[in-house]
Here is the input.
Amino acid sequence: MSTMLDLRKLTRTHGQGEQAVHALKSVDLSVEAGELVAVMGPSGSGKSTLLTCAGGLDQPTAGEVFVDGNDLTTLSRNAVAALRRRRIGYVFQDFNLIPALTAAENVALPLELDGTRTRTARKYAEAALTEVAIGELADRFPEDMSGGQRQRVAIARAIVGERRLLLADEPTGALDSDTGEAVLQLLRDRCDQHGIAGVLVTHDARHAAWADRVVYLRDGVLVGQSGPLPDADELLQESH
Amino acid sequence: MSIKHGLLALLRKDPKYGYQLRGEFEAATGATWPLNIGQVYTTLTRLERDGLVRAASSEGDGRSMYEITEAGRTELTSWFDTPVTRESRPRDELAIKLALALAVPGVDVSAVVQRQRMSTMQSLQELTKLKRTSRDADISWQLVLESMIFAAEAEIRWLDHCEAMLLRHRGKASASPTPTDVPEQHEDHLGAQR
Here is the structure.
């Protein structure tokens, strides 16, 4: 196994002096390829800040952010942007799909922005949509899809191409519980079968429970962790 | 729920030996409620005393087969017909522990809550993993698993709620100290400890 995400003494402070808000205080967290880690904590505990720093969308005040061995804090802005386009996928609560583009076009967009030829990007996009079990909806527009289908498109966009790190911020927040579980199943499969490292921010314990590890943030500090888990066979043995 | 009714339920169809009952009980509840053979026999003895089962034919080696009586069937029917009330469950050790943690000085209640949260979270993760690997399993087992998942989830939500209540309570206590308030005594207590 290789470490896909490694946060070292990650610190993020907004503002200065008396007014300074310490969103994250020296957080250490690493996520291996194939591992799904859930981040829980009350509102304002720093969950989303952790995710945006991990994905290169926000700059930490101190500490290091390694993605697939590259320290984002030392890379140029362009290099971070390139890494983000090629290696990191995001899934948000409100899907963030572009309404004027079809499912396939939405998924192909990050590849095309990165210089992939349209026809090749389309092929990758169709493959990603098939992997999330909505290959037949490639030419539909977001408004003609259910919430669960839209979130699948968003996940396809997050995994298209060579992406190795999947960052999901409340991906089930706008979905009913059955659809939410299906999305979790999908994220879980990505990690189990494709060696993707996943970080899932959620306030829902039932959804966090799909992860290998759950870490708990309070006031910008990691205050607890559960997992990793034994194999299913061992779990059954234990209860005898 | 009692072992008593579990055994009666398993005997409804046909007579069984004690060891068979143990195996079937575990199979029906997905081995989430392990019984030892001693519990099975002491329960059977009590059921026999109360006229709810009787020893039927016995094998040469002296082991008895048990069968359900008419009174046993009536008891079982009434059990299935009666909803489980919260009060009939065992006392909730966790609620008692937190109440005591608040009452006894020198206990970090937030730490107790946090430890419990991660412990319950671990159970919830384990149950979810079992659920993931039991998609094609017996429906009884899936029901039992879901019941435990809901219970663990509820416990975590309750812990979140406790924590929020504690914070509000502390905020109030520090904002408006009354002459009869405890903090002063509490400080004395801490001073004495030092």
